[in-house]
Amino acid sequence: KPIPSNTFFSRLSGIVGFSTAEDEDGRGCHCCGFQPNRLVTSYLHWTFRNSFGSVFVSFSLGFFGLTLIFAIILLAAGYQESQCISVNGEYFSAYEGNTFFKDFGDAYALSWTTFSTVGYGLIFPSTSANYSKVHKCGGIFVLCTLESFIGILFNSFCGAIVYGKVARLRSHAQVLFSDAVVVRYGNGVRIGKEDDVSDNGEARDDQGNDDKLHLPVLEFRIANKLCNARGGEIMDCSMNIVAIIDESKTSLQANKATTFKRGRRGKRRTLRQVREEESEEEQDVEEKTPVPHQSLEKFAVNLRESAAAEEQQEAFEEDSFGKLMPRRMFSKIEVETPDHPFFKRLWTVRHTLDVESPILCEQAKQMVKMNNGYWPAALNDYESVKAAINLDQLLVSLSGTSNADANAVYAQKVYDYHDINIGYRFVNMLYRHEVSGTMQVDTKVINDVVEQAGGGGEPFHVREPNPFSDILVL
Prior knowledge:
The chain has eleven helices and 22 strands. By secondary structure, the protein is of the alpha+beta class. Strands 9, 12, 13, 14, 16 and 17 form a six-stranded antiparallel sheet that branches. The chain is elongated.
């Protein structure tokens, strides 16, 4: 019966205490409880999460630590065979006036020159030219060869980490996301241009019809940091936006009874009651009148659209018991301009809160449908608009190709619910340079907002100044 090729190595590894087989947790090789693979992996992840300064300090500590360990071993070997190490033409620890600290300095000098492979100077392993019994120096030769090999691996390891960090920095898109997300509603959507707004921020007299209010629009913007530099454009830029919603809130809103319509006797009826009464009336009408073929086709189209909308939502469960964290739903957000072929200066991303929006609550969607696709006047205030938004976090991912070096670049931004400002709009960032006449972008005002046309912005909670904040407490 043939013997497996790894039998000998497995037995040898078991004798020396080193095992290459995976343990129960799948952690890979280990040596007497020590797991080098996990240690190296953890260190690699640490280097990519920290700055260049911290990584450089860790490199220095590793270099000095390894050279110090080999210096101690060389010092002990030099005391055993002093003729195997030549120090300025003399044997190790054999010249006059030597002390332990001088011997350790010589051993460390031999260690770091061997580890760094810079070349030997006045301290080097003896050869047959200065020591006739060089066959006794086999241990020193093996030790120096091993240290040189480990030094080459250490230098390559450090160089690979630095290259990876530099490549990662090059793959980051030089863009700047706005910290705030604004939502315009009412007249703020219809009158969106600065030409229609007076200097004091008030809207003009054209108020329009309140019965046909435009749907609210959610906005954030992105500025290119290299907008004023040559070759700083991002080609074929695309954006993917995903909303994170707690499934518990979605189901609660779907089942919650919202009173907004009065019955014949003046009693307030819930949305569910209204929907049930309407469905009963529709069933009675359908029983009395034949259903045309066109309505069946429309029903099939609506069914396919609803199935496609459900496929865009994915629910993930992190807590199987459901006691600590509810299930989270990830829904893709559709925006007006998800792609930009030539992103040079500024990119304003807009999402309309319509009946297809996954971040609009179910009650608001039903009211919009009953209002023929327009925003209901009962929700035309900042409190109602903010209550109608069902959102925990907004994940924004941007990817494209840098025009400078043709490398793929990306950027990410996470918005929370408290980053949303209702009833505000962004200020203008573009201006023309007085001397050159070129179009410039003022990135300092990317987060500046003003109240929308017609007012209605939610109040900001400004922290009151503390007169004792500048007092130093000893």
